[in-house]
């Protein structure tokens, strides 16, 4: 097996990879922000709204969670133009990311909201808090604090899933990797390099989210989880 | 010539689901085996083994499945194997599964109360005996719901292997769409088939979880 690894041709095209990285960061950043907001909003609606709202939200969550992100992406990218909505590949990708993450976030936040005990709400109301104040401070904040680790993992998974957007030729990191590969023919070297970039990104994002959790939720923050558990 | 989306196109897509299912089953078996070793290493008494398993889990959970696929695909070729894409696809999915199942099962093993370890060692069980007769049977019950839940992720992620030319559900949808230009119908059908596969598994996972909690509380 006389194979020689050659990374120089790959490093020579680092500019392309960095371009891709920048788009990946944008997709992930905007996607996570909007997806999380969508999730919180829908979980709220589901809790406050009537039966019909609940059924609609649940249907959306189940549909998204039980079909592949790739297929959702293809439906949006190829399907929307056929009903007259023209989307660029980037817009289609971002819509798919937000819709996908929104469903997972809804499910996670819903579980957090449901874990808040009734007596907490009654206590809040008996302190003459308004319904909105009770929801904001007694229900939502502890719910988010409790599910922050689960949300964080979902954010990291979503960031990694942006690589799937290369299927519709969005020029993010994976697509740029494919470009560099076809220029240099150093397949393995290109993908090892890009894999390490993703890994670094995932680690940084985890740290960032853990830090954010500690700032947002000082008590019972995600910081403790960062340390991880050592096997017995 | 533009073809219509007729019964034969539908049947083509439906038939390709067998590759999705086959891929899922094979990578679950292979990944389960590897994941079991990862879980054992992660809960081992030897610190280097624990660190190694933790590293493995961190890496697999920190890189896109698409990259695992490309690395398996080109890596196997580099190593001198001339294998059909289905094998590279299975290998990548198994690697992916091993990282997630390893972590799920580590949690399950550690969820068994530590008194069980103490009690069994007081009864002079050897370490393998403790695993075999005391810990694993209990860990298995805890592990079943999240494992079934992970199966849904695995089914969905097999769609990614379409990029190396394995004609499973997603790829079949792409081929039919290229011939018919009816994306809503075609990908709607593909999505529906995935849903029919995944939803019952999701419901089962949820029911198993409910039952486990009920039994614990009772």
UniProtKB/TrEMBL annotation, chain A:
Topological category with respect to the lipid bilayer: Multi-pass membrane protein
Record GO terms (molecular function): transmembrane transporter activity
Main subcellular location of this protein, as a coarse class: membrane
PANTHER family: ABC TRANSPORTER PERMEASE PROTEIN, MEMBRANE COMPONENT OF AMINO ACID ABC TRANSPORTER
Protein name: Amino acid ABC transporter permease
Cross-referenced NCBIfam families: HEQRo_perm_3TM (TIGR01726)
InterPro entries in UniProt: AA_ABC_transptr_permease_3TM, ArtM/GltK/GlnP/TcyL/YhdX-like, MetI-like, MetI-like_sf
Gene Ontology process terms (BP): amino acid transport
One GO CC term on file: ATP-binding cassette (ABC) transporter complex
Membrane-spanning segments: 20-48, 69-87, 190-217
CDD domains membership: TM_PBP2
Similarity remark: Belongs to the binding-protein-dependent transport system permease family. HisMQ subfamily.
Automatic annotation (TrEMBL), chain B:
PROSITE patterns according to UniProt: ABC_TM1
Subcellular locations according to the entry: Cell inner membrane; Cell membrane
Domain ABC transmembrane type-1: start-end pairs: 17-205
Transmembrane segments: 20-41, 53-74, 86-105, 186-205
Entry's Gene Ontology BP terms: amino acid transport
Keyword Endoplasmic reticulum: no
Membrane association type: Multi-pass membrane protein
CDD domains: TM_PBP2
Gene3D superfamilies tied to this protein: MetI-like
Gene Ontology CC annotations of this record: ATP-binding cassette (ABC) transporter complex
Keyword terms: Cell membrane, Membrane, Transmembrane, Transmembrane helix, Transport
One Pfam assignment: BPD_transp_1
NCBIfam families: HEQRo_perm_3TM
Similarity comment text for this entry: Belongs to the binding-protein-dependent transport system permease family. HisMQ subfamily.
Designated name of the protein: Amino acid ABC transporter permease
Organism encoding this protein: Roseicella frigidaeris
């Amino acid at each position: 097996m006389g194979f020689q690894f050659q990374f120089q041709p790959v490093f020579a095209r680092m500019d392309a990879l960095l371009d891709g990285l920048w788009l990946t960061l944008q997709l992930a950043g905007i996607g996570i922000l909007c997806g999380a907001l969508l999730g919180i909003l829908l979980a709220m609606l589901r809790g406050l709204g009537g039966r019909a709202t609940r059924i609609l939200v649940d249907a959306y969550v189940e549909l998204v969670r039980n079909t592949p992100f790739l297929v959702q992406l293809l439906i949006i990218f190829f399907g929307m133009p056929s009903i007259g909505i023209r989307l660029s590949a980037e817009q289609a990708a971002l819509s798919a990311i937000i819709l996908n993450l929104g469903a997972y976030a809804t499910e996670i936040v819903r579980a957090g909201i449901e874990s808040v005990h009734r007596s907490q709400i009654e206590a809040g109301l008996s302190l003459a808090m308004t319904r909105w104040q009770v929801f904001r401070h007694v229900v939502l904040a502890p719910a988010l604090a409790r599910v922050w680790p689960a949300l964080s993992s979902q954010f990291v998974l979503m960031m990694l899933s942006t690589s799937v957007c290369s299927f519709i030729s969005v020029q993010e990191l994976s697509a740029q990797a494919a470009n560099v590969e076809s220029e240099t023919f150093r397949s393995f070297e290109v993908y090892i390099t890009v894999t390490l970039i993703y890994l670094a990104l995932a680690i940084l994002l985890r740290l960032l989210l853990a830090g954010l959790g500690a700032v947002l939720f000082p008590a019972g923050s995600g910081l403790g989880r960062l340390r991880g558990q050592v096997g017995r | 010539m533009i073809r219509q989306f007729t019964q034969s196109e539908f049947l083509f897509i439906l038939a390709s689901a067998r590759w999705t299912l086959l891929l899922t089953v094979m990578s679950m078996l292979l990944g389960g085996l590897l994941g079991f070793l990862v879980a054992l290493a992660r809960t081992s008494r030897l610190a280097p083994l624990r660190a190694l398993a933790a590293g493995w889990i961190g890496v697999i959970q920190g890189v896109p499945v698409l990259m695992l696929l490309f690395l398996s695909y080109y890596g196997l070729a580099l190593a001198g194997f001339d294998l059909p894409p289905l094998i590279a696809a299975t290998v990548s999915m198994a690697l992916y599964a091993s990282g997630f199942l390893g972590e799920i099962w580590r949690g399950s093993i550690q969820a068994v109360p530590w008194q069980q370890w103490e009690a069994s060692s007081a009864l002079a069980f050897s370490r393998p005996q403790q695993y075999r007769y005391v810990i694993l049977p209990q860990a298995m019950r805890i592990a079943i719901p999240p494992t079934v839940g992970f199966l849904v992720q695995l089914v969905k992620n097999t769609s990614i292997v379409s990029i190396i030319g394995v004609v499973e559900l997603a790829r079949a949808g792409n081929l039919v769409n290229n011939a018919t230009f009816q994306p809503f119908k075609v990908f709607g059908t593909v999505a529906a088939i995935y849903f029919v596969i995944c939803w019952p598994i999701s419901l089962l996972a949820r029911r198993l979880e409910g039952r486990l909690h009920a039994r614990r509380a009772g």
